[in-house]
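Revision sheet: structure tokens.
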Amino acid sequence: MIVIWLGLFLWLIKAAIGSLQETVRRSPVPAGDIVLFASSAAVIGALGSFIFIGLARLPTQPWQFLPVITFLAACFDAALASRLDRFRVARLVAVFLIVGLQFPRAADQTRYRQTNIDLIASKLNHDVAPGDCIVVHPWYCGVTFG
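Predicted:
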């Protein structure tokens, strides 16, 4: 997936350079403005996010990169939509291909236990009396605990 994201990022920079060249030639190209905006927003947004993460010096988790990936995906879609409008089916195939590449890895992760709340609930079922107060932390395990 890194290769796909890097390829999209490099294409976006190439499209931005092409858009700047068209703007310099003063040919009115509204699609070029969209590509220029999308590519500059992607570069500034990605660099800003990674600089912030670096300056924070906190340990990161994979889900903390989801906002950056979502923002970059929106920028790529805007740039692609303005340049490759005639390739709608190819864009749809690319989306299914990216999702399909992630499916085996995600399916493999479903074999592993995510929490042990069911084991704790069965033990507490024998040890607590009616009226006892049980605090479940983290909060999202409360539904399973119930």
